[in-house]
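User: Please fill in residues for this 250-position structure.
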């Protein structure tokens, strides 16, 4: 796509029997590169190259790969949902909840696909995919309904899907996270995941108790604790794994 023509400018004649002359010739030899890429595309090409180098970890001959690139992307989007919503609120003056639903919904749907990057028991990825996918769809529909202000869509997103269905999908997702931490995670990330999931489960139990006794609504700040599993997901997904020899040669 981007072809590069290379031409070599010869140095002045040197004596091949003189090692000093040969060394000087090698230093003075200049390689001139003539790009056929238009000048305006140079920053684009440079940026794409930098992104690929970061993603695949090519540096000094070390070929590394993250455990789940989709998990890194999904967790990053979910964790950025709150800062983006707050920034939107500061700039526009309203609409933070709508932006939170839209960005968070997209992040959760991406997480549904990332669940298949964590292999053992075959049934486990489906639990994570369906649960967080249902929650992400609900969240996304809530944001779209706020954006378009459609009555029937608002009723569907908030009154039908946004009640027990949304709560159940979150609970099942926490079950998937807990099982994945215990079965597949290792080292310090596993210890962090256990602590995070313990806190998230306790917060979810507390919210059930508050709703059962009707003592009021759960604080929105307390609900932010449910973002902690995505911190673990980001750490677990970004683990560097060396590629096999066959992949290196390819």
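Assistant: Residues filled in for all 250 positions:
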């Amino acid at each position: 796509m981007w072809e590069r023509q290379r031409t070599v400018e010869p140095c002045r004649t040197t004596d091949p029997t003189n090692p000093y002359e040969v060394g000087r010739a090698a230093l003075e030899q200049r390689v001139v590169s003539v790009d056929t890429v238009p000048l305006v595309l140079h920053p684009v090409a440079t940026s794409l190259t930098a992104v690929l180098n970061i993603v695949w970890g090519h540096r000094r001959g070390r070929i590394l790969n993250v455990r789940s690139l989709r998990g890194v992307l999904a967790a990053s989007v979910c964790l950025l949902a709150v800062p983006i919503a707050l920034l939107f609120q500061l700039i526009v003056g309203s609409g933070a909840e709508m932006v939170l639903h839209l960005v968070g919904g997209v992040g959760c749907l991406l997480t549904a696909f990332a669940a298949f990057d964590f292999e053992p028991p075959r049934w486990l990825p489906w639990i994570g995919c369906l649960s967080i996918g249902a929650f992400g769809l609900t969240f996304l529909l809530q944001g779209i309904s706020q954006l378009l202000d459609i009555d029937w869509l608002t009723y569907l997103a908030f009154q039908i899907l946004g009640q027990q269905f949304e709560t159940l999908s979150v609970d099942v997702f926490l079950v998937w996270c807990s099982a994945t931490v215990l079965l597949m995670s290792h080292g310090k990330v596993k210890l962090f995941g256990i602590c995070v999931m313990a806190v998230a489960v306790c917060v979810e139990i507390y919210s059930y108790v508050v709703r059962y006794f009707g003592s009021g609504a759960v604080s929105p700040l307390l609900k932010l604790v449910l973002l902690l599993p995505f911190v673990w997901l980001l750490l677990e997904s970004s683990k560097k794994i060396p590629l096999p020899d066959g992949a290196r040669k390819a």
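For context: The chain has two domains: 4-65, 67-242.
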